[in-house]
Each structure stands twice: as C-alpha cells, then as structure tokens.
Specification:
The relative contact order is 0.08. About 2% of the residues have low confidence. Helices cover 44% and strands 7% of the residues. A hairpin with a 4-residue loop joins strand 4 and strand 5. Strands 1-2-3 form a three-stranded antiparallel sheet, covered by helices on one side. It has three domains: 55 residues, no CATH class; 86 residues; 179 residues, Intergrase catalytic core (hpI Integrase, Chain A, Orthogonal Bundle). By secondary structure, the protein is mainly alpha-helical. It is built from 15 helices and six strands.
Length: 364
C-alpha cells in the first residue's frame, strides 16, 4: 500500500512498500495530491504484475545522464509500426524532443510541457491532446523497453488539455459542422465535368477531372478520408463484393467499407488508367505522402472556390457522408462507426447533426 502525505513545504510525499517485491520502501514526491495518487496507482499496478521498474531495482542499469528522449524517439520511429498521424507529429517535434532528458521525465515535466503548450504556443485543447497522445505512446514503448520507470503523461488528470483561469484567454475546440448546402454538390460535379463557372474565362484543367469526379463521389458515399482515397490500389477494391478493404487507416486499424449503388456506378464509369493505384497522385513512397496531400488539398481549395462553395474543406465531405448515413439509413451507431472507422462512439455523435430545417419539418 502507498502512503501519501503532505509535507510542510506543500509538496506531497509518496512511500510505496511491497513485501516480497521491493526489498525496501520506495520514496517519491509530487507537487499536487492528484499527481501523487496517480503516480502511486501506476507504480502499484506495475508491482502487482511483478514488474519492477529499473530505477527501483537494487542494481539498476545506469542511465546515461546525457541521453535525450530523441535517442529513443529515433529508434521508436525506425522500428515501431504506428499510425501515420503519430509519425508526422513526432517528426515535427524532434527539435523539441531533443531538449528533453530521459532522467528528467516526471510529473512536473509533464505539467510544465502541457502548460507551455497553453501559455506559450496557445494551442487548442485538441492539438494538445494529439501531441500528448503521440508522445505518450512513444513513452509507453520506452517503459516496455525498460528505458523508463513510468510514463508521466499517463498520470495527467482528466481534462488536462482544457484551459484554466491562469492559462490566459480560454481556448476551446471548434468542431466543424459544415455540410453541403443546396446546389453545391451539383455545382461541383458540373465544374469537374468541364463546365466553365459563370464570370470565369476558363475552368479546371481536364487532365485529372475524371479522377476528381470519382474521389468526390466516393468521399460522399463512403466517408473515407482524403489519404485513404488517393492511396487506394485496385487490389483493395472488390466490386463483386461491393467492398473497399483498407489495410491501414488513420487509427492504425483495418477497415472494410461497403460501396453503395452510386459508388459502384462511379467505379463502373471510371477508366482504369494505372496498373496498381486507382489514382495517379501518389507514387507509393511514404515520404511523398505529405506532398501528395498538400497538392490535393490545394487543388480542392480551387475546386471549392470556383464552384462557389466558400469554406468547404475536403474533410467536410466526410462529415456530410456520415450525416447522410444517419439521415438516409436505419444503420445503428455501431454499424456507422464500422463504416467510418470511428473508434469512440462519442466522437461519432457530433456527426449526427441534422439541419434545423429538416428537424422543423418533423414538428407540428
């Protein structure tokens, strides 16, 4: 059992005893009672499993004081399979990670880092959670490799990313709920079919318009993400079974996406131009993914602007697609989650927003 008590200085002392596992009590300290209890709970959980962190052993493996987290981050990035979003985030943070020392990772460090993201970087709560999540998964690996006793990021309290009074102007997550307005889908299809917008001398270059018609249709019919779409190979598409098989998604999981009759018709009208890939925007190399995404995002911005769909992001099509699944089918939340790839049904709830005008028609 752990003994937790407050010192006269205001800090909290943690004493952990475990007969048959620890030869002597382990002492630690924390700034707050919550941090102390989180630390004790995590450490006792490890000890209950018979796992003794290196720093608690009588003859611990000495850790070089100059080891930075980047040393292990580089190994983690090279050896561990992870989601593309985690990989991109960690690569973008390597300069910062290079400043962290392994022996300095503590609850105080975790608190200071989160505080810095709020008060200095002014990040939104969702951005903070994404960064903390990516680093936390890396530190979980460090714990498993016996390079770190406990992962301090796992001890952060609930709502750690929310802004408190002392963090300055309060920032909150802004959830996009942009949907296609009346006539927008038709205008986009017309533009992608080669029409010249009113008041313009020319429309879009016609070299990849067929590709854009298919990817736009699939986005609305399948709720697939942009990268899931432009990296599709013909091996993943089974028209007889009306299914697209996604090997690895943003969440790192496999997913089977059913094809509607509209999606099947779009595939039927699409000429097969490439042997391996459905579209020709990506060469198959991981290092070129970001460039392909940026190029397509810029092209979509021009498409939405020329078609008069101001502020319509490509990812908004995913929101539209999931809303349509709620409006036009009797599928359950779980079934829709299997199609869209949402792991947490609570995240899916925000996609179920119906237009106020549709709800009004149901009233007396």
């Amino acid at each position: 059992m752990a003994t937790i008590r407050q010192r006269k200085s205001g800090s909290w002392e943690i004493i952990i005893r475990k007969k048959g596992v620890l030869e002597k009590p382990h002492y630690a300290s924390a700034d707050t009672e919550i941090e102390a209890r989180n630390y004790a709970e995590t450490l006792e959980g490890l000890l209950d499993q018979g796992i003794i962190p290196t720093e608690l052993k009588d003859d611990p493996v000495p850790q070089r004081q100059h080891d930075t987290v980047k040393v292990w981050a580089d190994i983690y990035l090279a050896q561990v399979d992870m989601s593309d979003s985690d990989r991109v985030l960690l690569h973008s943070m390597l300069d910062l990670i290079g400043l962290w020392k392994m022996h300095e990772l503590s609850m105080q460090w975790a608190h200071r880092w989160v505080q810095s993201m709020k008060r200095v970087d002014r990040l939104s709560p969702s951005s903070i959670r994404h960064k903390v999540g990516a680093v936390a998964r890396m530190l979980d690996w460090c714990v498993a490799m016996d390079k770190l006793a406990v992962n301090p990021l796992r001890m952060l309290p609930k709502r750690y990313a929310s802004y408190a009074m002392g963090d300055g102007d309060r920032r909150v997550d802004v959830e996009r709920d942009r949907r296609l307005l009346e006539g927008e889908e038709e205008r986009i299809i017309a533009l992608l079919s080669g029409d010249i917008p009113a008041g313009k001398e020319r429309g879009l270059l016609k070299d990849d318009l067929e590709d854009w018609i298919l990817i736009f249709t699939l986005a609305l019919e399948t709720a697939m993400r942009l990268k899931e779409l432009y990296t599709l190979t013909w091996e993943q598409v089974d028209l007889e079974k009306r299914t697209v098989f996604l090997d690895k998604t943003k969440n790192g999981d496999k997913r089977q996406v059913p094809l509607s009759s509209v999606a099947l018709e779009a595939f039927g009208a699409f000429p097969r131009k490439y042997d391996r890939f459905v579209f020709g925007w990506w060469d198959g190399r991981r290092e070129s993914l970001r460039g392909a995404t940026n190029k397509l995002s810029q092209k979509w911005a021009r498409i939405s602007r020329l078609s008069g769909c101001d502020g319509l992001h490509f990812h908004d099509l995913r929101h539209e697609a999931v809303c349509r699944l709620y409006e036009r089918t009797q599928l359950s939340d779980l079934q829709i989650a299997k199609i869209s790839g949402h792991k947490d049904l609570r995240m899916l709830k925000r996609y179920a927003n119906l237009r106020g005008s549709d709800l009004a028609e149901l009233l007396w």
